[in-house]
Amino acid sequence: MSDTGQQAPHYPFPAPSALEPPQEWARLREGCPVAPIRLASGDEALLLTRYADVKQLLSDPRFTHHLVADDAANITANESGGVFGSGGTNVRGDAHREWRKLIGKAFTAKRVSAMQPRIEAMAEHLVDEMIKQGPSADLAAGLGFPLPVWVICDLLGVPDADRDKFAYWSDTLLSLTKFAQDEIDAAQADFAGYMRTHVTAKRAEPGDDLISELISLVGALDGQVTEEVTLMTAKGLLVAGHETTANMIGKMVAMLLADRTRWEQLLADPALIRPAVEECLRHDANFGFGIPRYISEEVKIADTTLPAGTTVVCSLSSANRDERAFDHAADMDLTRSPNPHLIFGAGPYSCLGQSLARTELQTVLKVLLDRLPTLALAVPADALERREGLVVGGLQQVPVTW
């Protein structure tokens, strides 16, 4: 731990460049695996940076990311309304586990697989538009951000005309410092009102979408209100399905183009698309804040006993670069297998949308390799800039040429 009297460093840490990890990660993994940090709110928490420790805590069903206890640290600079705070839904504990079970029944691999052709058609359309306006573009704005929100709206049965609203609501849910409290409150109220109306319409006229299916399954929740369940679902999909995947598309392409031999390797062997996506997820040094956990009862991590009432932040990206878990962890190896990275979490609260995210990333990469084999970064990789002020890490722009 830190020396007595020494102030905990501010977190998230600054990085040398948009695609490189903060220097603190390696130092903490070696010398201080349970490290005090200061959050955007000014509150203190503890940071885990090693693979085994992060996996242990994420796999423990006693602890969740809902930081609603009186002594939990505030993650953001805002009073409430963030994805980890009291602005989340009130579905907790056993009800939360039941909700996850319910979503598992509705959000199946079969449903995701059936969406793949539509995802590919959306990606093709967006690439068509880029080509029309080319031969250069901001890949983040032209493809990365529109695609996942289109996919989520398609999944929820939301009209295409409302896609921009969903993108804005997603941003406010993930604010660390970007939005003021009144903006977050207004956006959450708008989002909740929209979804209530949407659920009512779907109850009257069900369609082939996730919300309609949840309505038909909701009796399984034993008394939980349909509205609450669907709001939680839509919010979870927005947070996990839009921002994270949108940012990952840009980062994935930037990582693969930062060293041109990686792109050439994929052009020569498209069978590497699947493992390449996994390696991009593992190697991502700009994942964002990480996953917090509120310690509701004493637990021992890395020879340190954490008392009840502690807030812990798990750095997934640091864990994924731990040499104890991955050979040559600092290197990007598109053939790496197995690749048990933790970017989707671990244990009972791992990301429910991971199969959808993987499908989107693999599909986007396939379409880009097919349609734009000469794709290249239009600026040096170290000139790329990070998006700031949000829980999810990403790039401001990904300028490309072809």
From TrEMBL:
Organism: Streptosporangium minutum
SUPFAM superfamilies, per the entry: Cytochrome P450
Protein name, as recorded: Cytochrome P450
Keyword NADP belongs to the record: no
InterPro entries named in the record: Cyt_P450, Cyt_P450_B, Cyt_P450_sf
Gene Ontology terms, MF aspect: heme binding; iron ion binding; monooxygenase activity; oxidoreductase activity, acting on paired donors, with incorporation or reduction of molecular oxygen
Family: Belongs to the cytochrome P450 family.
Cofactor requirements of the protein: heme
Keyword terms, alphabetized: Heme, Iron, Metal-binding, Monooxygenase, Oxidoreductase
